[in-house]
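Worked example (supplementary).
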Amino acid sequence: MAPFEELQSLWQSQNPPVMAVAERDAASLAKAFHRYGRRQDLINLGKALLLALQLVLLVGRLRHNPVEMFGVALVDCSAVYFMIYEWRRQRAIARLNFAAPSRDFVHDAIARLMAQRHPFRSREAYIMTAGLWAGFTVMMASHWPAVGLRGLLIRETVITALAFVILPFSNYLRGKRWNLECRPLVERLTALLVTSQERAE
Amino acid sequence: MNHSDRERLFLELFHQHRARVQRLCYGYLNSTAESEDLFQEIMTNVWNSLPGFRGDSQPGTWLYRIAVNTALLHRRKWKPTEELPELADQAIGAQQSLEQQERLAALHRAIATLGDQDRLIVTLLLEGLSYKEIAEITGITVNYVGVKITRIRQAIEQKITEVSHGAV
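After joint prediction of all chains, the assembly is encoded as:
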């Protein structure tokens, strides 16, 4: 009969199986990023559909008012411009290949994911905001022509204030989405960095 | 806990307990590939849970508790009809003598015949943890741990004896 203490020391002396990051992790990470990409595709397709639907409805209603139509077009073009910019960035993330990731590559992937947390801190977001502001101004100017300087000021204040309502709400939603979609990926990549550091030592 | 503290603590835990946790995964699942997945899942859960670690228990005990819970959940994800994978002998350390390797392989086979919780308990025991620590990790009483360990030891020693006598 084998004494248990002997088994204990034998157990502790065994080398744990080698944990190769290589192919298994690469495949698993690629899958996770692919899923992320698919999800973004669906969300963006949904947004595109909504925009198209809204455009069709507004064109139907405003076809006799070219100025207001121009405003709507400005708003929609700005939204589409930012959506395409974001979609391309998300596709780029989804296509990342982790077959042989260097530490810099992983850091870069983490940075790209972190940037998704605050998408409105970009030149493109400022351009979109300016486009939206101009579009809404044109729409409101056509709908409610300003009466004097006071009316103009009130109208522009209302439009500008809209941004301060929409932006925090969008940021809040983005935070929720980021926690759901990107945080697990960031944590996996961070764990991968730590593991690779350990192996390097 | 800021990000650098979290990373430092994670690295410390990783350095100190990696081999033990890897052996626990391997002892529990008997499959190199599966145990890699489980190990990664455990480390991800440890990383995610670090902000909530208040230091009430020893970091090692806390990590083991996560490892055990993750392992039990991981096993439940498998289909009920799915059998444990075959033991991959090549995963056992090449530095040991042939006799030691055979004995270790027999030990792994004996462990594989135990129930889920018993496999975890025996791997913790083989790592040299006390009954009290095992009770704290698995959430059962010290007395019950004692009873279980007596049964498990008997079962394992009997299996190994059978193997060494060519009965299996």
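Two points are worth noting when inspecting this output. Chain B touches chain A through 43 residues (CB under 8 Å). Chain B has a mean pLDDT of 79.
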